[in-house]
Amino acid sequence: MPDFKQLFLNNKNWADRIEKEQPGFFKQLSEQQAPEYLWIGCSDSRVPANEIVGLLPGELFVHRNVANLVLHSDMNCLSVLQYAIDILKVKHILVVGHYGCGGVKAAMTKQRVGFVDNWLRNVKDVYAMHRQEVDDIADDNERLNRLIELNVMEQVRNLCHTSFVQEAWERGQPLTIHGWVYSLRNGRVKDLRVSHSCADKIDDIYTLDLTDASLSEK
Fold this sequence. Notes:
Blueprint: H1 4-21, H2 25-31, E1 37-42, H3 49-52, E2 60-65, H4 75-87, E3 92-98, H5 102-109, H6 116-129, H7 131-135, H8 140-160, H9 163-170, E4 176-182, E5 189-191
Keywords: Lyase, Metal-binding, Zinc
EC number: 4.2.1.1
Protein name: Carbonic anhydrase
């Protein structure tokens, strides 16, 4: 591990290299933020969002948490989501898990980690929803990786259920939700093919009637 001072040297070398390759890059970046993508990923240090998809600073808005969850009670995630949609006008939201996720594994194996166990209860809920499918897989690694995929799929659904996403679709704003999984072994991203660009395929119970204001009067 480099000592703390090395980080400053690394930063200087990086900034100098970027400025040499693209003169004026940082001045332009400081004046405007206009990403087309919101990345919702895991906090794992081995999953660097920008590098994975080859984007520079300013091209990817990022939110990360343990096990890449999207929860209706998480004010942090919802604040990022609302800002990304309403202010930045992102066109794509990427929910990105990664194979071998320690958070998902801890939730699946009843491993006690500490305070984060309360957060991972949400992954246990996903496991409970798909228990038979997951438990029918004989290999431990394949079973874990399938739950990781299912967790991403559920977070895509959770995104589609939010008022911010549905309001964007209602006003005709271009917005597509995607579910991906990243492999630490080969650096490749797998598209789970669960993309949504409108509310047509959402379970009716989660679809908001955005034209009915009568509820606020009751």
